[in-house]
Amino acid sequence: MRRVLKEEYDVLVVGAGPGGSMASYYASKGGAKTLLVEKSQEIGEPVRCAEAVPRLEEFNIYPSEEFVRSYIKGGYLIAPNGKRIEVKGGKTEGYVVERKIFDKYLAIRSAKVGTRIAVKSRVVDLYPCEDGFKVKVLHLGEEYTVKTKIVIAADGVESSVAEMAGLRCKKNPMEVCSCAEYEMTGVKLLDNHMMEFYFGDLSPKGYAWIFPKGDAANVGLGVIDKKKKAIEYLNEFLEHPILEGRLKDATPVEFKCGGVPVGGPIERTVGDNIMVVGDAAGQVSPLTGGGIYLAMSCGSIAGEVAAKAVKKGDYSMETLLEYERRWKERFYNTLMTELKYKNILQRLGERELNIIAEVMDERLEEIDVKKIIFKVVKKAPSLLKYFGELIA
Amino acid sequence: MRVNYERCGYCGACVGVCKSMALELIENRIVIYQERCKGCKACMIVCPLKALEE
Ligand SMILES: Cc1cc2nc3c(=O)[nH]c(=O)nc-3n(C[C@H](O)[C@H](O)[C@H](O)COP(=O)(O)OP(=O)(O)OC[C@H]3O[C@@H](n4cnc5c(N)ncnc54)[C@H](O)[C@@H]3O)c2cc1C
Ligand code: SF4
Ligand code: SF4
Known about the structure:
Chain B: It holds the Pfam family Fer4_21. Chain A has 392 residues and is of the alpha/beta class.
C-alpha cells in the first residue's frame, strides 16, 4: 500500500464506485499506469443504493450468482389511488445486485487489467503542477503526495475532488433527492421479479420503492422537502394502507440512506488534466434517480479518453473534451428530456397523478409520454397547463 | 452547524451540497470546518435523518 502511494502515475482515479472502477479499467486496458484511490476501508461500503441495474452485457459483464440477488422483468407504477400500471420488457429488465459485492467485483476486474488500488486512502487536496496534478492522499494518518498526469474524479455524491480543482460540481439542495431505505426480509412482494414504485404525498417530489432482493427487499423512498425528513416519510410508508399490510411481518436487516443528485449534469465535466464522472458530474437519471449504469458508461468513456491522451502525451482540456463530447452525444438529450418530465411530475398533486394513471393502459412495454399526455388532456383539459411546454 | 453523531448515517449527501467545502466525510464521521461554514443550511435540507443542527 505505502509503496503504491509512493509512485507516479499516468491516471489517478478517485473513488472506487461503479464510475471509478470502470474508468480505471479502461485506462489500464489502454496501457496507462493507473491508480484507483478509495477512502473507505472496504470497497462497496457503506451502501447508499436500492441496487437495481439494467442489463450490463454491453460492458461484457454477465449476471453472476456472485452479485445478482434478483432478476427483474419490469415494474409496477402505483398511483395514489392504488391503480397499478405494469411496465415490462426492454429497458426495464435487469437485476437487483448486492452492491457491496458488485462494487468489489468491478474493482477486482479493474485490478486484473493492471490497476493498482489504494484503500483507506483519502484524497484531501490537489494542486496543478507542470504536466499534471500533485494529489495529496491521507492513508493511516500519513500524508503522501502522488504525481499524476490525469485525475478522474469519481468521488460520488460528495463531489469534492473536482471542486478542489476549480470545477463547479456541488449541487443545489433542492436538486438532491434525500433518501432513506430499509433492506427487509419477510416482505410480501406483488411479484418476485417486479419492482414497485409508489407516487404521491407519501413521498413528495420523489417516489417510494420496493425492489425484490433475493430473500429480502429494498424498501425505501426519496423526497425533496424542506421540512419533513426522508426517515419520517419512510417510517410512515412502512405502515401505509396502500401496501395492504404486505410489510406486516417484515423486519429490517440493513439501513441505508443517501442523496441522489437529480438536477441534471454539471456544466463542465473536463478541465486541463481532469475529468469528472458519475454522481459527481450529475450523471444520474433525473426521473428514476438511477446512476449506476450512467456512471459505468461515462466512466468507461473517461478511461478510454485518458488512455488515449497518455499515448498522445497531451492532457490538455482540448484533448480531454473528447470525453465530454462522447458522453453528451450518448446521454445529454435523454437527461435533459427526463429533467423536463421530472419538473412537471413534481408539480402534480395526487388528483392529477390519479387522472394520468386512469388514462394509461394497464400493461405497457414502453412509456410513450406524448401519447399519455394527449389522452390526459383529452380527459381533463384543465391539466393542459402542466404540459404546455412539452406539447409546444 | 453541529452533527448529531447518534443520528448520522454517514451518507455524504450534506457534503455534496456544501459549496463552502466546510464538510468532509471521513469513514463514518462527518467533520465540520466551522471557520468555512456560511450558515446557508443547504446541508440541513438534504440530510435524510435530521442529523444536522444549528
Ligand atoms: C438511496 C439510494 C438509492 C439508489 N438506488 C439506485 C438504484 O436502484 N439504481 C441505480 O442505478 N442507482 C441508484 N442510486 C444512485 C447510485 O447509487 C449512484 O448513482 C452510483 O453509486 C454512482 O456511482 P459513482 O461511481 O459515481 O459514485 P459512488 O458509487 O458513490 O462511489 C464514489 C466513491 O468515492 C469514494 N470517495 C469519495 N470521496 C473520496 C475521496 N476524497 N478520496 C477517496 N475516495 C473518495 C467514496 O467512498 C465512494 O466509494 C441510488 C442512490 C441512493 C442514495
Ligand atoms: S450551513 Fe451551508 S456552509 Fe455550513 S456546513 Fe451546511 S452547507 Fe456548508
Ligand atoms: S446528510 Fe445527514 S446522515 Fe448523511 S452524512 Fe450528512 S449529516 Fe449524516
